[in-house]
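Re: duplicated header lines in exported structure tokens

Our pipeline writes sequence and tokens for each protein into one text file. With two proteins the header for the second block appears twice in some exports. Here is an export where it did not happen, for reference. First protein block:
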Amino acid sequence: MDGKKILSQKLQFALDERDRDNRLISPPDPSTIAQMVDFGSNDTLSLTTSGALTKSFEDQLRKNPDFIVGSTSTRVFEGTTQYLKELEVYMAQFHKAESALFFNSGYDANVALWSTIPQNGDFILYDQYVHASIHDGMRRGRAQTIMFAHNDCASFRHCLESLRDQNPGIADGSNLVFVALESFYSMDGDEAPIHELLEIAKTTLARGNFIFSVDEAHSNGLLGPNGSGFVTHHGLEKEIGLRVHTFGKALGSNGAVVLAEPTIKFNLINYARSVIFSTAPSFVALAAVKAGYELLASEDGERRRRTLQQNIRYFHKTFLSHPKWAAIKKAKIIQIPNEKSWKSEILQSPIIPLVTPPNESTELAGHMHRAKFWANPVRYPIVPKGMDRVRISIHVDNTREQIEDVIEVIMEWATYRAEQTRKARL
């Protein structure tokens, strides 16, 4: 037996083990998804599926007829083109930031940021549910890390006070506490209590030695002036020191940008391995991003944001007022974490989690797929054990009829499961 066969056997063993645990990831067939109504993708503004982004992208090509397809080099050599420089200036102005640095993905941006910017002696206080890319960046960095309970202001205060009281460098202001948050969290769809957290930081660290970072992957394009995001919506551009905006969700393309002061940008250029050792983004990738931003700032972009919020509210209202919901909820077949708070939220996330009993999210998703509605089951280790769910994503182009129909399909499955549970208890 040669090395390749030994390796193949070892890898297959790991895959078989994951399959036995019902955790094997198998990407769906694109032709299958194409036949279904989309309640799963991140194309929340429907820029991609509607063709609007394609038209705007073609406009960018016409405006720049002499573009070259390739990148030619990394950012630190010849890869920083004039178009890229101008786009970074544009994005900084769009988001009311001092400077912007483009990355090939949100993952790259977060790993670069958290592995590079916090220094020895600093601490990172992070929300329990921040994205995996933030965790990967923190693991590669030099700062010590502490977790606080998700969106729990009391837990945040306790952790911050303990940090201050047990670390002279924090107490005297010589070292920093970085606070890592998301605007809308990707699995629960809830919003960070940003004003409360900022106030706690100000009162606990009177010397002001803290820096907040907000990952706006799920809010970019959806709220704020011209869709500029969560931080600008709250008017906190001067209080949030670090922002990460990604382009693979509402904007319909790919890449990300770190918004920060110029010193941080230049530090990332010098020390972030994903900048130094990665090929710079091509004109085609950059043009797609610029096309998306121009759509956000247009009347059509504003219309799409309004329509999305209307669709989100319609889903909540229709789902929670359904005559079968009370019995399903009582049987604990489906739970919606933000059931009680959605009415009071002025602007809402398009992510609506349907939390199921353990190992049943795939059954619900399969039932939806058979009815020609696409949504994604999410299981451990992506979410905590016992918190399996089907993640519903609402889109601009979802019609009211489609929303009503998918809710009926969900209720059909949940009613059947509730009846099974009732009979099992007899």
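Second protein block, exported in the same file:
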Amino acid sequence: MANAEMFKCIELPGRGRALVTTRRVRAGEIVLKDSPSLLYVVSTAFERFCGNCLRICPDSDLADCGLVKFCSAECCVTFPKDLCSALGQLKETEFDSEEENQARFLLAAYHLQLVSPEEFEKLLLLEGEGKVDDEGVSKLHGFVENAVKSWPWTSQRKLSPKLTTDLLAKEARNGFGLMAPCEKIGERSVRGYGLYTTAAFINHECLPNCCRFEYVDKPGKSNTDIFIRAMHDILPETEICISYFPVNWPYDLRQDKLEKEYGFKCSCERCDTEQGWSDGEGEEGEEEEELQDQDESSLEKVVGQLQLKASSFPNEEEKNGEAEVEEVYAEEDDDFHHAMFFVKYLCPVDDCGGTMAPIPQELDLKQEKSGDDDGDLFLTMECNMCGHIRTGDEFRKDLEENSILE
């Protein structure tokens, strides 16, 4: 599960519970490998993906309930029959796709209470508290209450409108979307969601030091585990952070998403800088939008916009654990510190928008061969969205061609 020796869970002022490093973490290290407490396939994808493991299963038949498929006989046997039966009752409802997704989650959550009360209690410790007077929640709770009444409860059952609202709030705050393969570059949809009770304590940062990887369609067990991987070296006593959305989202979109779905406004150094851009008018504001646009992901495009924005970056002192970039810029160019983040960590594939992190094998080879402890600028990187691999030599060549590296 977790590499527990790497981090501790503590309460941070203004941040809530958080994971903080207990030792130096090297670029490419797996900080956390976490398994889901529960999974569910979304209503728009149940005919394409396995209801048990979320792998692709385009040619299999639907189960008896008509609302779940399985990729193998093993998954068919493993999936709980009483949960399948409860899912079948969704056909009698008039739920829209969002309500059906919420119902699928609630059935999975209450079934977890049935088969693993200890894991269910862990869900209840996650952030999120709902409002009981929500009419939509009342409708969902009525459906769930009827759907689970025939389950073989052997202990005191917890089932109430308040618990249902709280579960929905916890899922909204803490659920991890497991993505379907790219159908076209830049277009990916969610195949299902999982709740990961350790990874849920990782907070957001607009310039994160870690990113999440998943390999749902890989063979073997544990295919729905998620991997939190260090993007660069991280010092001890540093908060482990990921971005809750693609790192190249513009300021206004990031703030809107964080406020509506997670209940806070971000005031990190990047947001403070880009808020100044957003407040500006004219060509500079347009240039900033181009820099942050999701379609502008190649190194050439990013570099071109960085040159235009040179005067817009305030002085910043390097944060704990941030990758050093002295090899790229002279001291007088420290203003470009967070701009260089995009050059190094934004996937160079056009329209991808994924985040790059060193692959763990490359880190091991590098340390074995040279014992180099001076940085991670030219490690082999992997994109967490499209899977693109970029070698250190390729990155060096790109920097030289764009006159970033002398």
